[in-house]
Design brief:
The chain is of the alpha+beta class. It is built from 3 helices and 4 strands. Helices cover 32% and strands 23% of the residues.
């Protein structure tokens, strides 16, 4: 069952580079039938998920100053992080324990 739906009206704000996922994240996605592409779209469009207000502001600033962006999404299989590198070359879906 998907936990998020892609909203086509939300414009992409963040270049993602190559999108990859760690083995642990893929295990969670498969085991719980998660729509990981919807989560990646939320991340790319500026929906940072369940990060603190401080981290959300840091992500908003990162869109302007080119630093790393981290989103967190609580799923039935646990929390997933999505991190886009400062140089925008890659975005990784991972478990916090894999950081």
């Amino acid at each position: 069952m998907p936990i998020a739906h892609t909203d086509p009206s939300r414009a992409v704000r963040l270049p993602l580079g190559h999108v990859v996922a760690t083995p642990g994240a893929l295990d969670v996605v498969r085991a719980h039938g998660l729509d990981v592409l919807a989560l990646v779209h939320r991340h790319a469009s500026g929906d940072w998920g369940t990060v603190s207000e401080h981290d959300a502001r840091a992500n908003d600033l990162a869109l302007q100053n080119g630093t790393r962006v981290l989103s967190a999404y609580d799923t039935p299989g646990g929390r997933l992080w999505i991190i886009t590198e400062a140089d925008r070359s890659a975005t990784t879906v991972l478990l916090p324990s894999e950081y």
